[in-house]
Amino acid sequence: MGRTDRAARTIAAPPAAVYGALVDRAAVEAWLPPDGMSGRIERWDPRPGGGFRMVLTYLDPSDGSGKSTEGTDVVEVGFADLVPSERVVHRAVFESDDPLYAGTMTMTWRLAASGAGTEVTVTATDVPAGIDQAVHEQGIASSLANLASYVEPVG
């Protein structure tokens, strides 16, 4: 069994709003890329058994840290489970020739009402060995911060 990485954040928006941002193409394209990356969704089918293909591009490709090319991570994501206002489960496979990035990583996004907001907990299981744990958890936390900025009311 592979490694498990986690991150959590309370977002000042109701579970329905957070869930909506997890299953909307434009929203996912806007908030999912962590700091230092941009994202483009090439295919979108938001239903159990459906999924999406996302190309994540490093804003500074000179570090050569991409999994698919020197400057990109390409990931095929399947929607394994969609429960409105409760959870979204992704099964992610990186396109890479490097066996350290092989395998299917499962990312579970759990939503729980918490006061005036939503506690969002992300659990990534079977994380490929080539992904540094601290960097991955920082990336998930960055995506959660982007998600909060995307759905929280202004003001």
From TrEMBL:
<comment type="similarity">
    <text>Belongs to the AHA1 family.</text>
</comment>
<dbReference type="InterPro" id="IPR023393">
    <property type="entry name" value="START-like_dom_sf"/>
</dbReference>
<protein>
    <recommendedName>
        <fullName>Activator of Hsp90 ATPase homologue 1/2-like C-terminal domain-containing protein</fullName>
    </recommendedName>
</protein>
<dbReference type="Pfam" id="PF08327">
    <property type="entry name" value="AHSA1"/>
</dbReference>
<feature type="domain" description="Activator of Hsp90 ATPase homologue 1/2-like C-terminal">
    <location>
        <begin position="12"/>
        <end position="152"/>
    </location>
</feature>
<dbReference type="InterPro" id="IPR013538">
    <property type="entry name" value="ASHA1/2-like_C"/>
</dbReference>
